[in-house]
Design a protein that fits this description.
Elements (H helix, E strand, L loop, with lengths): L6 E5 L5 H9 L5 E2 L14 E5 L6 H16 L1
Antiparallel strand pairs: 1-3, 2-3
């Protein structure tokens, strides 16, 4: 399989760990920052990447961002 090239980074206000776990528990497989551009800095621990593919329609994208918003608020 080819790597997923449709990952979009988001910088969160706080640590991403709980948000990442909440989204994964819903079947949304976001990733932690995989690029070493920021090293082990505080900013790197606040970045997660969303899977947004060209075949996603507006409904799917809205569902993704709604889940993200709920995961951040929880």
């Amino acid at each position: 399989t080819w790597p997923n090239l449709y990952r979009y980074p988001l910088l969160l206000k706080n640590s991403r760990d709980q948000v990442l776990l909440r989204l994964r528990s819903q079947g949304i497989f976001v990733d932690a920052l995989w690029d070493d551009a920021y090293g082990d800095s505080e900013i790197a621990r606040r970045i997660l990447t969303l899977p947004i593919k060209p075949e996603y329609n507006q409904v799917i994208i809205n569902q993704l961002f709604t889940a993200l918003e709920q995961a951040i608020k929880s």
